[in-house]
Specification:
127 residues, mainly beta, 4-stranded antiparallel sheet, 0% helix, 48% strand, globular
């Protein structure tokens, strides 16, 4: 069992930055690929980015590529999402999720394949 708690959300003007953090409980954090997803009102949950269990591989949605960066610290059981050059269309609730994987470089983009989810943190970007 893994419990995930996101923090760091808030309100920012377009062009600004925010850093989200996700803290995980449990002793096997390094066994999980960690994904970030977001959901805006009236829209489906969408993939933002994912980092492999080793931290050696990351992939991002085209909409955030070059602006968002995911990192993880397996010693601290945390995964962060650094968001720069924020746009109003980035406004959403952001969720971290964990997927148990064997391969150190496996990444998963389908939210249905994730095992655990955090409660979400709101990000609002004003123009």
């Amino acid at each position: 069992q893994v419990q995930l708690v996101e923090s760091g959300g808030g309100s920012v003007q377009a062009g600004g930055s925010l850093r989200l953090s996700c803290a995980a409980s449990g002793r096997t954090f390094s066994s999980y690929a960690m994904g970030w997803f977001r959901q805006a009102p009236g829209k489906e949950r969408e993939f933002v980015g994912v980092i492999s269990r080793s931290g050696g591989r990351t992939i991002y949605a085209d909409s955030v590529k070059g602006r968002f960066t995911i990192s993880r610290d397996n010693a601290k059981n945390t995964v962060d999402l650094q968001m720069n050059s924020l746009k109003p269309e980035d406004t959403a609730s952001y969720y971290c999720a964990a997927r148990a994987v064997l391969d150190t470089l496996v990444v998963v983009t389908n939210p249905a394949r994730y095992d655990y989810w955090g409660q979400g943190t709101q990000v609002t970007v004003s123009s």
